[in-house]
């Protein structure tokens, strides 16, 4: 297990000991890069959280590393990284700075989707975009959330009007993670056809296009360095070559496009929050070593309730590791993704985003009142980890989805999903 300890400045530091077992040489190299970056990220995490500034240095170091294009094929400068590679890299990065890792999760979800689609549809638009992304070393993100819509992929409120050379798009989106540093952003919108019916479009746009404006609204409890601002699109021209896909409005789309994206994003979210939990456990152990409290004469590590809480944390972390790694190993790399992969990754995400807060709570119980101060990273972890259950599909929506599939009920059954 890669350990986390406190240095003299009471900051999070990532140890050199890396013990991800039974890894391939490719994965070992990627994890080593991630751990080197995480050590640097850890020295800035407290400052970024306090200031709410964008992690400019972290992103620059990520861009310059082999991690940026790792999901792409070797002929484009990538590593053909698997879902397990991605999961372990994000887990390591999150132990250094969760906000930064969250930005990279969205990058990996989109690059993983594009790489997958270029394999299953080699003559499509997907490979063209991969080539552009590789040539310009682009950082990718998404704008797939809208206030007022349960799911802006299935039910986009954004509108797309067909015009010469493309579409005119208007949208008001939330949670564009990494907004200040992105080069390319995914979006969706609804097009009304001449017969009055609607269909959805999936497209890409850049932050510097006329009509694109970030809302500067990221004043939040946690994950402050992720800069997940809202973004406005006002009469933005999306050219035809930036259109990736048409699909049915208000439908559960089981195409490879969305199955691959959801699987990569779910697995990534699971890894980010599992990383926070493991870091919280390691900080707790390191803090207790050699610490005593009157009238006791033994180190606090000898206190039975502390031992029990650490054991509970280890059980939860082991559970998260097992489900993350098993799910990622079973992902059909290079083959068609099935709906079962979505259920598997959704379960892994649910387990991790709901278990991680428990681990941090145990950590704070063990450390006590000192954990409430910013001199320890636990209070930041407490705030960061609260974001996990909100990511689509939310924790409650995930349970509803799993229950409907178990009973063979329609996914969009009236009375469910806020319908």
From TrEMBL:
<dbReference type="Pfam" id="PF02771">
    <property type="entry name" value="Acyl-CoA_dh_N"/>
</dbReference>
<keyword id="KW-0560">Oxidoreductase</keyword>
<dbReference type="Pfam" id="PF08028">
    <property type="entry name" value="Acyl-CoA_dh_2"/>
</dbReference>
<protein>
    <submittedName>
        <fullName>Acyl-CoA dehydrogenase family protein</fullName>
        <ecNumber>1.-.-.-</ecNumber>
    </submittedName>
</protein>
<feature type="domain" description="Acyl-CoA dehydrogenase C-terminal">
    <location>
        <begin position="268"/>
        <end position="392"/>
    </location>
</feature>
<feature type="domain" description="Acyl-CoA dehydrogenase/oxidase N-terminal">
    <location>
        <begin position="38"/>
        <end position="118"/>
    </location>
</feature>
<dbReference type="InterPro" id="IPR013107">
    <property type="entry name" value="Acyl-CoA_DH_C"/>
</dbReference>
<dbReference type="InterPro" id="IPR009100">
    <property type="entry name" value="AcylCoA_DH/oxidase_NM_dom_sf"/>
</dbReference>
<dbReference type="GO" id="GO:0016491">
    <property type="term" value="F:oxidoreductase activity"/>
</dbReference>
<dbReference type="InterPro" id="IPR036250">
    <property type="entry name" value="AcylCo_DH-like_C"/>
</dbReference>
<dbReference type="InterPro" id="IPR037069">
    <property type="entry name" value="AcylCoA_DH/ox_N_sf"/>
</dbReference>
<dbReference type="InterPro" id="IPR013786">
    <property type="entry name" value="AcylCoA_DH/ox_N"/>
</dbReference>
<dbReference type="InterPro" id="IPR046373">
    <property type="entry name" value="Acyl-CoA_Oxase/DH_mid-dom_sf"/>
</dbReference>
């Amino acid at each position: 297990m890669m350990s986390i300890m406190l240095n003299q400045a009471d900051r999070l530091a990532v140890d050199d000991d890396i013990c991800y077992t039974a890894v391939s040489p490719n994965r070992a190299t990627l994890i080593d890069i991630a751990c080197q970056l995480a050590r640097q990220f850890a020295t800035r995490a407290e400052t970024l959280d306090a200031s709410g500034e964008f992690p400019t240095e972290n992103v620059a170091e990520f861009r310059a590393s082999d991690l940026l294009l790792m999901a792409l094929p070797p002929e484009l400068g990538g590593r053909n990284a698997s879902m397990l590679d991605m999961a372990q890299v994000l887990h390591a990065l999150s132990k250094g700075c969760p906000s930064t890792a969250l930005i990279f999760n969205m990058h990996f979800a989109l690059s993983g989707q594009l790489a997958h689609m270029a394999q299953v549809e080699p003559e499509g638009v997907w490979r063209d975009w991969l080539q552009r992304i590789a040539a310009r070393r682009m950082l990718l993100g998404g704008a797939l959330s809208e206030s007022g819509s349960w799911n802006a992929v299935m039910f986009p409120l954004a509108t797309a009007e067909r015009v010469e050379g493309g579409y005119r798009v208007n949208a008001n989106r939330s949670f564009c993670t990494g907004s200040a540093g992105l080069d390319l952003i995914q979006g969706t919108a609804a097009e009304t056809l001449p017969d009055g019916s609607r269909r959805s479009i999936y497209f890409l746009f850049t932050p510097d296009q006329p009509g694109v404006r970030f809302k500067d609204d990221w004043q939040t409890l946690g994950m402050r360095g992720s800069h997940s601002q809202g973004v406005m699109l006002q009469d933005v021209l999306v050219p035809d070559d930036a259109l990736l896909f048409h699909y049915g409005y208000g439908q559960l789309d089981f195409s490879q496009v969305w199955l691959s994206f959801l699987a990569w994003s779910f697995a990534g979210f699971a890894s980010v929050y599992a990383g926070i939990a493991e870091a919280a456990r390691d900080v707790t152990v390191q803090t207790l070593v050699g610490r005593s409290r009157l009238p006791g004469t033994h180190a606090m590590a000898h206190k039975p309730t502390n031992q029990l809480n650490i054991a509970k944390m280890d059980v939860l972390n082991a559970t998260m590791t097992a489900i993350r790694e098993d799910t990622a190993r079973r992902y059909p790399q290079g083959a068609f993704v099935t709906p079962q992969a979505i259920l598997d990754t959704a379960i892994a995400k649910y387990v991790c985003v709901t278990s991680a807060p428990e681990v941090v709570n145990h950590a704070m119980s063990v450390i006590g009142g000192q954990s409430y101060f910013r001199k320890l990273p636990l209070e930041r972890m407490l705030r960061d980890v609260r974001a996990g259950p909100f990511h689509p599909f939310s924790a409650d929506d995930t349970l509803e989805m799993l229950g409907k599939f178990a009973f063979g009920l329609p996914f969009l059954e009236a009375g469910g999903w806020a319908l």
